From TrEMBL:
Alphabetical list of Pfam families matching this protein: ubiquitin
Organism annotation: Deinandra increscens subsp. villosa
Domain spans labelled Ubiquitin-like: 3-60, 83-158, 168-240
A biological-process GO annotation: proteasome-mediated ubiquitin-dependent protein catabolic process
Cellular compartments per GO CC: cytosol; nucleoplasm
GO molecular function: polyubiquitin modification-dependent protein binding; proteasome binding; ubiquitin binding
Protein origin, superkingdom: Eukaryota
Protein name: Ubiquitin-like domain-containing protein
Amino acid sequence: MKIHILAKAYALTIEVGTQETILEIKRKIEHCLGVPISSQTLSVCDWELLDGLDLDDYPIVTEGTKIDLTITRIPSFEPRKQIQITVKFSSRKHSIEVDRTETVGSLKEKIHIMDGTPIKQMMLFFTGVEMDDDFRKLSDFGVGEFSEIVVFLKTMSRLVAEPPSRKLSFVVQTSSALLDSSSLPVEMKDSSTVSEVRELLLGRKLIPLDDYIFIHKQRIMRENCSLRWHGVENGDCLYIFKGTVSRGC
């Protein structure tokens, strides 16, 4: 059955079994939102749901039940280890959040989605040094919190092809309630989108037709963005859960 997890900034819908424990549900929330289990309190109508019990012990939890998620110890809570940087053009600038392990290539894709600037035209500079290797991490260039990255645009005569796609080998990890074999090895190009990964799994009938949330390093993945954009590397694990997620106010 589907239940709705409501927090201040998120509304998360997940598929659960009636015999799943509250602790297992918290583990799903940790994978989806990055909230540590120890920082979660789940309740229905101010009635706290205890880790050692399962949903069968709570008759008030049925299909479509809204469960409140309270997050404690906020000062020490860093769900995605993101930093804020500034991307500066000649006539405008943008503030953007990036992961510390993000690559130069994935940053270019983010700038393209946000600003519309063609990826092939971008040259990124930090402290006067060109970030000319799309596969290197931002941290390799010393990029940190509140860093400013300058974007120069190549003229049409200087355009070069985008870096060639690489083949990635990764694992899609599902919950045991979804499939008997919960670890699925997958090979795809790093330019493939999350939507294409989902379609591949559905086409091979490795997962049943349904709504799914993909998670990489405790970050919810965007369906229209590539594996490279999300920083997926060889040997990484993508977690998949039934459900949908939407951002609140």
